[in-house]
Every structure is written in C-alpha cells, then in structure tokens.
Amino acid sequence: MIKQKKAQWPWHVLTVLILIGLAGALYYATSLMSYEWRWNRVPQYFAYQAEEAQRAAETSTVIEVIHNGGKAEVVLRGDDGAEQRLTVADNSLQLAEGDDVAEGDVIGVNRHWAAGPLLLGLWTTVWLSLVSGVLGLLIGLATGLCRLSNNPTLRDLSTLYVELVRGTPLLVQIFIFYFFIGTVLNLSREFAGIAALSLFTGAYVAEIIRAGVQSIARGQNEAARSLGLNASQSMRYVVLPQAFKRVLPPLAGQFISLVKDTSLVSVIAITELLKSGREVITTSFSPFEILFCVAGLYLLINLPLSHFASRLERRLAQSD
User: Fold this and answer.
1) Which of 115, 140, 164 is the last residue of a domain?
2) Which CATH number covers residue 51?
3) Model's pTM, two decimal places?
C-alpha cells in the first residue's frame, strides 16, 4: 500500500501568516510610540557623493571657463603670469570669466562616490572576523592536539589555556589585552582586538578538534600504524581528515559566533559594524531603521557562511 505524502503548503501558508503577524505587531508597537519611519535617510550611510573643494592656489584672475559635459575647466592666471587649471562640477562653479579670486577661495567642487559609515563598518567586521577566524583555527588545532598529547606539560598547559579562556567573559579578555598587555607592549587597538578574538575562538576550536579526534575509532589509528605510518602521519592523513568531517558543523557555528563577537571590540574604539551603526543613530535620529540595517548586514555575512558550510558538509559526506 502506497503511503500518500501529506501536503506541505498549509504549513508554508501558516509560516507566512506568522511572519505577517510579527511584522504587524512591530508596526503596532512603533505606532504606540508615535515613531516616524525615515527609510529615505538610510542609503546615504551606505554610499554618498562626497564633495572635494577646489581652491585657488594664489591671488589670480579667471581668464577662461570651458564647459564640457557637466564639468567646467577653470583657467586662472596669477599676478606672476603662472596659470592654474581646475576642473569642477559645472553646477558648483561659483565664478565667471574676468572675476578676481584670492588665495584659498573656492572655485567649485568635485563630486565622487564614497563608502558610508555602515559600509566601512561592515568591511571592518569582515576583515576582523577573517583574520581572527584563521588565527583561531590555527591556535585551536595546535591546542586541541596538545590536549591529546602524551606529554604532561603540553597537556596541562593546553588544558589551563582552554579552561581559563572559556571560563572568563570575552569582554574582560578584550579589556585585559588592550589596557594591560597592549599598554605594556605598545600594541594597537586592532592588534589587541584580533589577539583577544583569536585566543577566545582558539579555545573553543580546540575543544571541537579534541572531541572530533576522540570520536574516531582507535582502530583507524592502529590500522594506519600497521601500514608503516608514524604517529604524526597517521594523525595528518588518516585521523584528522575523518575528524574534520564530523566537526565541520560546530566549527561553522563557532565562526558565525565569532562574526557576532566582533561587536564587542567597539569598547576599545574599533569602529566595526555595530559601533558605526550607533554613531549613525546619533546623527540620523532613526534608531530602528539603522539597527534593522545592522542586523541585516550581520545576516549578509553569516547566511552565506552557513550555506557554504552546509554544502561542504554534504559534499564531504558523499565522498565517504
């Protein structure tokens, strides 16, 4: 007897209704506060047209203005006969032929697109996460293997490091690195932030690696040794590749957490995404719009990372 598959569309409809209800509840909550949404203010904080003033280098006279496709080339002649040519936006030109200008007078402006504070904050978050993630992975791999070592000193020191870092808040570690270690060693705030994030991530990665290696059957290592591989070759070519497949999901989760943890380095004046958002709020007076954008940008980083980890996990599973 063939079992009929239940229709799934009612559940999808229910999901949509729940999301619509949540959006309606949010709108109702803001209406109670008489909040006025100003989404039109948001784009300028991603990218805007910056203006660069063009000034006269010395006291001179405008001898010619050449208009060409929205640009104006202004030719100035000084008292000594030297000429200066400036190109400005046509609609910003403030002078005409024959006008006299003094040194430092603004002739016009040039406009060009520039990254806004939210885009700059996003870039800072991305490179902080990338550098800290790579260093944390290397630290965690070395520490995880040290925890499995037969050497008591390596095992004890790695255990002390893992328990110390995991048992204290990341915010406290950032303060210690910046105000104590950073002051003594004259480190930049970026270096202190990356060091704290890397060591914090490394402690959790070490436990993930240790658990993954210990989950591999001991017979795999014994079989590799019987084929003539030494301990390091057995770990590198046999045990670690199998362990990596098992620890990929928790590793992806740890790196996603790292992206969000970068928001804590704002306490040492690193202008990452969240700090950029807070600074924008003080000038835009649009807290909800900016915070929603900040949350969306974090999702923009984490969702592709999660999707990539899922695809890699499926591909590795097929290779078994």
Assistant:
1) 115
2) 2.40.50.100
3) 0.83
Amino acid found at 273: L
Domain that holds residue 58: 44-115
Report how far residue 40's alpha carbon sits from residue 200's, in angstroms, rounded to the nearest whole number.
39
Strands (E), the chain: 47-55, 60-68, 71-78, 83-89, 100-101, 106-115
* Percent share of the chain, pLDDT over 90: 44
Assess whether 124 and 247 both reside in one domain.
Answer: yes
What's the CA gap between 94 and 79, in Å, rounded?
A: 21
- Helix 117-147 and helix 152-166: axis angle, to 10°? 150
Give the list of residues 6+ apart from residue 273 with CB closer than 8 angstroms, or none. Answer: 118, 121, 122, 124, 125, 262, 263, 294, 297, 298
Q: 120-163, pLDDT tens digit by residue?
A: 999 999 999 999 999 999 999 999 999 988 899 999 999 999 99
Q: Do 105 and 131 share a domain, yes or no?
A: no
Structure confidence by residue, pLDDT tens digits, 90-121: 888 888 888 888 888 888 888 888 999 999 99
